[in-house]
Design goal:
Elements lengths: L3 E2 L5 E3 L4 H20 L11 H8 L14 H17 L3 H17 L8 H5 L14 H19 L3 H16 L16 H12 L2 H13 L6 H8 L33 H18 L2 H17 L31 H18 L2 H17 L15 E2 L1 H6 L19 H10 L6 E4 L2 E4 L5 E5 L2 E7 L5 E8 L4 E8 L7 E5 L2 E3 L3 E2 L2 E8 L4 E6 L3 E4 L11 E6 L2 E6 H4 L6 E4 L4 E5 L8 E12 L12 E12 L11 E2 L2 E4 L3
Parallel strand pairs: 5-9, 18-23
Antiparallel strand pairs: 1-4, 2-6, 3-22, 4-5, 6-7, 7-8, 8-14, 9-13, 10-11, 10-14, 12-13, 15-16, 16-17, 16-23, 17-21, 17-22, 18-20, 19-20, 20-21
Helix pairs in contact: 1-3, 1-16, 2-4, 3-6, 3-16, 6-7, 6-8, 8-9, 8-11, 9-11, 11-12, 11-13, 12-13, 13-14
């Protein structure tokens, strides 16, 4: 039986950790990104988003600015705005969004077409390069924004704009004779169409999404056939070096066994596959989703929930290839992984998906934004040596400080829209009961009443659920048994109870009454994590986790040359309450070792050039690194096994 999330409007985050992010997105991130989209942030790269729509609408002269997919940035901003308005109405912000939507409407062509790159630069080439040119990708993001804005405000203008564009696409693309048997080069529209179908009740959008999914990778291969019409040339320099696996079109989706190619495209595709599988009850497609999830989790995902191990194609490579210092782990990819996990949770109701969702959220995703919300990482490394990143061209994609903005700025608004919609990821329901996926303090409407969660995560594991119900109700409360906890005591109104575990959830089946309080007292030990021996970069090393958080060493606390540090296997950890920047966070202290250089200047020598000296080690949550200026950082620490 599939489960559905409790809707955003019915969940309010009241949490010691994530309330900060909810407030930050509303008060800082959305206004800051609006300035960036209007090219008004000093020292930041130009966005051109508003500029491009003004030109397309005939209200301004000039050239197109940015990439072929530039329109998507304003879409994600609008989506974040919609989620913010859902939780906290703001007349000025809504009026600003209405102005943007009006501008988009004025730019749209009479036949419904809406893509500023081709409207401004190459109107004769629209729908001629589905593989490279992102028309369907941009349509998908704007459609997501349209649905979110409609749900937030009841205004359907943007949704009607996007329905006209999708009608335009459908007149040109589809299974019928005379149409292009195309599908998106960059997947996104598939999942957006399902959202539109849910909002409108129109089956044709499910059918179009299913067509894109089912047509992908079939013979004759559309992208190769399309290439012939362009004179065997590729649109953008470098793409001729990428195999079809880069686009996940190397095989029909049901035959794909490994997560391959561009990581963001992949997880957007898998999200769409899960959506279509759930709506059509396609068991073969469901199993394909499970197979691809296991490929990511078991062999191609970083400990932080980052995915995509190479800058070349921002892509997956091969099993266990997870380098720390040349990693890509794009912020968008982890956002997309969370989307995929949530769809799998809805489809299968198995806590394994929530485990990965939580890992990506607390680590790779929030690491992509500074703690003040005003600078961002596109790439999320697990090891940083600033001099190498500045001087080694193979590491030039690694930024040692967060950037104010990017010319290719998909990540900042993607992080914003996820955090603004986070309440929808906490709970799921079906007719049998309530499922809790994330331990985030919140209140949620449930069964004509309210459930209030109070959680100490990520600092401690004690979590309580208090029910306010107008009349007694019998149902199952399912609370995830987190992988980071070894022991849990469950009490109901102060009395200890037992609860069986099914699919990774504690299941408490009882009649709930007004004021009932269920407490899950979960321990949160510091854990040493070891990578599979096939992960060559991490042999002889250890990573530290506590609760859902990965920890790291930073030069600021531990001195330079972090690879010279060792953590003895016998070393105990001391927990310390953070201060200042780290207020409300837990830091970890341990007695470690350092290989101290002897002072020899010889490049090679027959005598050891280091000596072992003791050193105190300080570990901080990974997401918080690089908030104190440029310095070295290290997640995987050498372990001294006999010390």
């Amino acid at each position: 039986m599939s489960q559905k999330p409790i809707l955003l409007k019915d969940v309010t985050i009241e949490d010691g950790f994530f309330s900060h992010y909810a407030d930050l997105v509303r008060s800082e991130v959305i206004p800051y990104q609006w300035e960036a989209l209007n090219d008004r942030v000093p020292g930041a790269e130009k966005s051109g988003c508003i500029h491009n729509f003004q030109i397309a609408a005939g209200e301004k002269e000039g050239d197109f600015i940015g990439f072929v997919f530039q329109d998507s940035d304003i879409s994600k901003w609008l989506e974040a705005v919609a989620y913010s308005l859902t939780k906290k109405p703001d007349e000025k912000l809504e009026a600003l969004a209405d102005e943007v939507i009006d501008l988009i409407g004025r730019a749209q062509k009479e036949d419904g077409y809406l893509d500023t790159y081709f409207m401004i630069k190459e109107p004769e080439n629209r729908f001629r390069n589905f593989r490279d040119c992102h028309e369907l990708y941009c349509c998908g993001h704007m459609t997501e924004a349209a649905v979110a804005y409609y749900r937030a405000t009841g205004k359907d203008k943007l949704m009607r704009i996007m329905q006209r564009f999708i009608d335009c696409i459908s007149r040109n693309v589809g299974p019928e004779e005379g149409k292009l048997h195309a599908y998106p080069g960059h997947e996104e529209l598939e999942l957006a169409l399902i959202k539109l179908a849910d909002a409108t009740g129109e089956q044709k959008y499910v059918d179009l999404a299913a067509y894109f999914i089912n047509e992908r990778g079939q013979d004759p291969h559309f992208f190769l056939e399309e290439l012939k019409t362009r004179g065997d040339t590729f649109r953008f320099e470098g793409n001729d070096l990428q195999p079809e696996a880069y686009f996940q079109s190397h095989l029909p989706v049901r035959e794909q066994k490994d997560a391959v190619g561009h990581a963001v495209r992949a997880v957007y595709l898998y999200t769409g596959m899960a959506d279509v599988a759930a709506r059509t009850q396609d068991e073969e497609l469901k199993e394909a989703c499970r197979t691809l999830f296991r490929s990511i989790r078991d062999k191609r995902m970083y400990i932080t929930g980052g995915i995509g191990s190479t800058v070349d194609g921002e892509a997956f490579t091969f099993d266990y290839d997870l380098p720390n210092d040349t990693v890509y782990a794009e912020s968008c990819a982890s956002v997309g992984l969370i989307f995929f996990c949530r769809r799998m949770l809805e489809m299968d109701g198995d806590a394994q998906y929530a485990e990965v969702m939580e890992r990506a959220l607390y680590n790779n995703v929030i690491a992509g934004m500074a703690m003040d919300g005003k600078s961002f990482f596109y790439v999320n490394p697990l090891e940083v040596f600033p001099e190498a990143d500045h001087k080694d061209p193979h590491k030039s994609h690694i930024k040692t400080v967060r950037q104010k903005w990017f010319a290719c700025a998909c990540c900042p608004p993607n992080i914003a829209r996820l955090l603004a919609s986070l309440p929808e990821y906490i709970y799921q329901t079906d007719e049998t009961g309530l499922t809790v996926n994330l331990f985030i303090g919140s209140s949620a409407a449930y069964r004509n009443g309210t459930v209030v969660q109070r959680s100490g995560v990520p600092n401690d594991g004690k979590t309580t659920f208090t029910f306010h119900l107008p009349e007694e109700e019998s149902f199952v409360l399912r609370v995830r048994k987190p992988g980071w906890s070894r022991n849990c005591t469950i009490t109901v109104n102060g009395k200890t109870v037992e609860a069986p575990v099914e699919k990774g959830y504690f299941c408490l089946n009882r009649t709930f009454r007004e004021g009932d309080c269920v407490c899950f007292a979960m321990d949160m030990p510091v854990r040493r994590i070891y990578a599979n021996a096939n992960v060559r970069e991490d042999i002889g090393k250890v990573a530290i986790m506590r609760g859902p958080m990965v920890y790291c060493l930073e030069e600021h606390d531990n001195g330079a040359s972090l690879p010279l540090l060792f953590l003895p296997r016998s070393a105990a950890f001391k927990e310390k309450a953070g201060e200042g920047l780290f207020e409300n966070l837990t830091l970890l202290m341990a007695d470690g070792l350092r290989l101290q250089p002897t002072g020899s200047e010889e490049l090679y020598s027959e005598t050891p050039c280091t000596q072992v000296v003791p050193q105190k080690l300080t570990f901080i949550p990974y997401f918080s690194w690089a908030n104190r200026g440029e310095n070295e950082m290290l997640v995987w620490v050498r372990e001294a096994p006999l010390a």
